[in-house]
Amino acid sequence: MGKDFDLYRPSEEHDMLRESVRALAEAKIAPFAAAVDEEGRFPQEALDALVANDLHAVHVPESYGGAGADALATVIVIEEVARVCGSSSLIPAVNKLGSLPVILSGSEELKARYLAPLAKGDAMFSYALSEPDAGSDAAGMKTRAVRDGDFWVLNGVKRWITNAGVSEYYTVMAVTDPEKRSKGISAFVVEKSDEGVSFGAPEKKLGIKGSPTREVYLDNVRIPADRMIGAEGTGFATAMKTLDHTRITIAAQALGIAQGALDYAKGYVKERKQFGKPIADFQGVQFMLADMAMKLEAARQLTYAAAAKSERVDGDLTFFGAAAKCFASDVAMEVTTDAVQLLGGYGYTRDYPVERMMRDAKITQIYEGTNQIQRIVMARNLP
Q1: Helix (H, G, I), strand (E, B) or coil at 43
Q2: Can you tell me the mean pLDDT for 100-126?
Q3: How far apart are CA 192 and CA 293, in angstroms?
Q4: Residue 284: count of CB within 10 angstroms of its CB
Q5: Per-residue burial over 309-323, b = 16 or more CB atoms within 10 Å of its CB, e = otherwise
Q6: Mind telling me the catalytic residues?
Q7: Residue 234 CB neighbour total at 10 angstroms
Q8: Using CA atoms, how far apart are residues 234 and 231, in angstroms rounded to an integer?
Q9: pTM for the predicted model, two decimal places
Q10: Burial of 69 (0-12, 13-18, 19+ CB in 10 A)
Q11: CA 61 to chain centre
Q12: Confidence check: pLDDT of 5 > 90
């Protein structure tokens, strides 16, 4: 897909992609979004629709059977899916998060082995960095990998792992040299079928209930040495480099959720009558909508600029990735909360989608680095 990023605006090709993803999302994903949330079940219909249309992992390069989509195209796919279902948007988003370490640092053999099944839709990829005592302080992880001949043996617990149990493949960060802190962490590909891999019960969450979040237990998991991603001790650097790129996908998810809430609220205020006229005629309501649209568009422009920088791997990507994720998620929380307010009592009920969008928006301020951590990242990388 298009690679002209001199201007931070989508090309005609990107616009056509948006139209096709929006149509697919409206037809094949939106009808199940409320049930997926209510039942807390994985959105299998969304996965099937995305795989059938080659939209489940568009970032995979063409050389491994993927669509070879650029960073902006990936953002647009996630944004349009999130507009109707936040849980479903985590399929393309986490497939990128889980596999990007392999793309950035993996051997050619590793890429061929794991990216081809991902591109075909035969497997999903998750990212296992966080632990019970290593959240914002990811370098404080305790999961260990010990060398044993031509193998590594992994032991530990990973927490908050998105799509755990559904994904076949996991990028796992583990300590290989405890003396070196972050420089003693290495990255590995672990398969769900590896002996010693098991999962905790699904977390009971406020939002994104259709995307399973579980602990991953590694009990003497013995994997071939060639499943290490990059050189020993480079895992943490790969993890942080990955987040520079994938925080933009969380910004995209936030944009989509906020856009869905704004679109619904706009339609509602035109229909809802009070004092003998549509509430859309009242200036107080108009100002709320104007602010929502303004902030959302500002977040979108920042996110698209960050996507352009991701594609070019610009020197200021770290700042822009953090800024896009932080700003877009704060905007999403504000816009969805205002959408609930505009619907009044109805907005507070599960008969309308905006309360789900408000609940789904909250996590975008927390995962892939809390917004407090994003501000630290930005402060350390001021352009």
Answers
A1: coil
A2: 98
A3: 43
A4: 7
A5: bbbeebeebbbbbbb
A6: 368
A7: 18
A8: 6
A9: 0.97
A10: buried
A11: 19
A12: no
